[in-house]
Amino acid sequence: MGYPWEIPRNDISYPIKFFGQVAEGQGGKREWVGGENVRAFAYDVPIPGFRTKNTISLRLWSTRVAAEDFDLAAFNSGDYSKAGEAHANAERICYVLYPGDATEEGKQLRLKQQYTLCSASIQDIMARFKERSKGALNWDALPSKVAIQMNDTHPTLCVPELLRILIDEEGLAWDEAWKITQATVAYTNHTVLPEALEKWPLTTFQKLLPRHVEIIETIDEQFMSFVAGNVEKSELESKIASMRILENVDLPASIQSLLPPKPVREKAKKVKPVTDAAIKENGTKSPVKEAAAEEEEEEEEEVVPPKPASTVRMANLCVIAGHKVNGVAAIHSQIVIDEVFNDFYQLWPEKFQNKTNGVTPRRWLKFCNPELSSVITKWLGSEEWVLDTKQLSGLRNFADNKELQQEWVNAKVARKAKLAAYIKSKTGYTINPNALFDIQVKRIHEYKRQLLNIMGVIYRYKKMKEMSEKERAAKYVPRVVMFGGKAFATYWQAKRIVKLITDVAATVNNDPEIGDLLKVIMVPDYNVSVAEVLIPASELSQHISTAGMEASGTSNMKFSMNGCVLIGTLDGANVEIREEVGEDNFFLFGAYAHEIAGLRADRAAGKFQPDPRFEEVKSFIRSGVFGDYDYNELLGSLEGDSGYGRGDYFLVGHDFPAYIECQDKVDEAYRDQQRWTRMSIMNTAGSYTFSSDRTIHEYAKDIWEITPSPLE
Q1: Where are the beta strands (DSSP E) in 19-167?
Q2: Tell me: the pLDDT tens digits for 234-265?
Q3: I want to staple 593 with a disulfide (CB 3.0 to 4.6 A). Which of 26, 361, 548, 628 is the partner?
Q4: What's the pLDDT score for residue 80?
Q5: What confidence score (pLDDT) does residue 121 get?
Q6: CA dist., res. 483 & res. 427, Å (int)
């Protein structure tokens, strides 16, 4: 069954081409011919607003081929697979979004998906623009009518595709097409992780999209010429190496001529082995004398390392082509200009901006938390806060009011009861609704440090086991620690972390000695609908990424908006959330972003001394108390000083002592329910600035340069 709100638009379709070759047509025009042809068909999903009289459409695409592409002759001869091969290839594009790309086939399929979205959407935009021009077609007006925001690097192919259509199909000259393209597209960076700044093998690109490679090569060469005219000659070679689009590709002659000639390397001579006999004969270490004459004439040999693979750096293409580049949190945008794209920033400082992310209060507060929304509306005197979140700051005036605090607690209790029932139905575990609900839900990744969280849980459990019942009750408040999220199919370390969480849960949740004092839950099949149950019931939420590695995060905003207190590092939007809600209403721990590089260098130099409590947790895991699974691969990543998968790159060991001490402060604060409720109210009050309304207005004003058009 299909999605009922997905409306097929069989009247709207566009051709999509893969493979083939580029030929020279009349007048030197480049023509992309041959290859595999499919069609992208439109589907529209209506998007209603809040208290609006109109809807907008989200346009999606599906791929298929024409009926005549069915090979009837092959079918009649019994070769059924070949008969439907074209149909299968086309439909495969939309089967699974972002398939694994460990194989060449996976890379091709993923690139096909990205190109299909870009090409179909660009063709659709162009068709609408031409239709609305009513015969007076002026391509220079395109940037004033169309804004294309490349959200991360996945839609980067918008750039060469827009150029291809303007040049090859509409007949524009390169300079004019490039000017229009640059004024139309902008780029939002969402990550500082090197592996997430997409690079595609040039060979895959050349095979699948040959015309686009030609266009990218031209952009690359022209950009390098621009760099050559704007940087010191002494820096030119290093700047080109870091900034050009094509990595590990020979420089064009026009650029090579601008660089100083490289010195000729002396060839390394092959040295013969030294033996004890030679030492005795000569009294010194010398090569063995051989009788054969050809040995004396042996040619010199040079060891040439293999050339690294040529790649297309999509992020560099985005920065070069986009008229604006933005990060999604203040600290992230600073890292973007200081580290990730510093060379580009020095060239074009005016391009770079910050646009801190936001979330919609309609879905993430009013809809998913009606109990708390009613309390807020009562105390603010109206429901205007739903469209003007600045009014939430007015809750600060009532944060110490006992009546509000009691109503606030009642709303939270109601949502916790619903979550407890949900957990029971999905996992079979019964949890105490009066316990502290501690939640970390996000993609499973080493930098997000679910491993730090579960190791903290293990330390807590071990200490509980060493105490008497009375000591446990005095030291710890009852707590339910919940995890949710998905690990990428081939990300084995992330899957090991999930395995550890579930093993710990199986042990802790069935320990009668601990009972309701500690429970661990891995919420199955986490998605947005599940988040709408979890977030309103949360009391503590963990946003504990290695500082400087999280671009922004938006779940931290959703939790804070629902009166959840955060524990976290100074990373991503945590920095701004802490400023808005108040330092006393945020549990902070861990290294700062500017310290990370130095700490990693110290680790590589063997200067790091792990905390005994951290070593205690690792030994406890290895003892087999959580089952017989071999966790050496996982724990080994936290050990050693350097090497692939070693050296604790994400600084779990460094931050562990501060983390468990900060968790002790959480227990202390939660015991004082009046204090905790005040902290909760202050979080909701301070979340007003993290509305997506504010974010969208900033994009509209500063990047898209459009003004509101109110509907009467």
Answers
A1: 21-24, 30-33, 36-48, 55-64, 148-151
A2: 999 999 999 999 999 999 998 988 888 777 66
A3: 548
A4: 65
A5: 98
A6: 13
554 noted as active-site residue: yes
Neighbours of 7 (CB within 10 A): 13
Distances in Å between the Cα of 344 and the Cα atoms of 222, 275, 371 are 15, 56, 49
Q: Give dist(CA 111, CA 117) in Å, integer.
A: 10
Number of H helices, E strands in the chain: 31, 18
The catalytic residue among 244, 324, 448, 519 is 448
Catalytic entry in 323, 442, 449, 603: 442
Q: What are phi and psi of 32, to 5 degrees?
A: -90, 115
Mapping DSSP to helix (H, G, I), strand (E, B) and coil, where does residue 417 land?
Answer: helix
C-alpha 613 chain-centroid distance:
32
SS in 3 state form for 452-469? HHHHHHHHHHHHHHCCCH
Marked catalytic residue, from 554, 569, 684, 689 = 554
260-281 burial, b if ≥16 CB within 10 A, otherwise e? eeeeeeeeeeeeeeeeeebeee
40: which strand partners?
Answer: 14, 63
CB atoms within 10 A of CB 531: 21
Gap between the Cα atoms of 583 and 577, Å rounded: 9
Q: What is the DSSP letter of 524?
A: S
| DSSP character at residue 68 | G
Q: Is 134 left (phi over 0), alpha (psi -120 to 50) or beta?
A: left
Is 442 one of the annotated active-site residues of the chain?
yes
The Cα–Cα gap between 106 and 100 comes to 6
Which of the four CATH numbers 1.10.10.60, 3.40.190.290, 3.30.420.40, 3.40.50.2000 does domain 410-701 have?
A: 3.40.50.2000
- Residue 337 DSSP code: I
Q: What is the pLDDT of residue 188?
A: 98
* Torsion from C-alpha of 47, 49, 55, 58, nearest 10 degrees: -30
- Selected catalytic residue, list 164, 472, 558, 618: 558
DSSP state letter for 267: P
Q: Which of 443, 475, 675, 694 is catalytic?
A: 443
Predicted local confidence at residue 261, as pLDDT: 79
For the question of residue 443 being annotated catalytic, the response is yes
Given a contact cutoff of 8 angstroms between Cβ atoms, the answer to whether 186 and 325 are in contact is yes
3-state SS, residue 21: strand
Determine the Cα–Cα distance for residues 57 and 78; give it in Å rounded to an integer: 44
Residue 437, SS3? strand
Beta strands across the sheet bearing 55-64: 7-18, 36-48, 55-64
Given this model, what pLDDT does residue 260 score?
80
Q: Give Cα 422 to chain centroid, integer Å.
A: 29
Six-digit token string for 176: 């004019």
Q: Token digits for 76?
A: 């009649």
Residues of the chain with pLDDT under 50: 1, 278-280, 283-294, 296-298
d(CA 336, CA 325): 9
Q: Residues 14, 128: contact at Cβ < 8 Å?
A: no
Q: What is the DSSP letter of 103?
A: S
Q: What's residue 66's pLDDT?
A: 75
| Cβ proximity of 116 and 95 under 8 Å | no
Rg (CA), the chain: 30
Among 441, 436, 438, CA closest to 517: 436
State the DSSP H helix or E strand holding residue 239, giving kind and residue range, or none if neither: helix 236-243
Rounded to the nearest 10°, the torsion over CA 245, 251, 254, 260 is 120
The reply to whether 558 belongs to the active site is yes
Strands 148-151 vs 185-188: parallel, antiparallel or unpaired: parallel
Token digits for 462? 């071990």
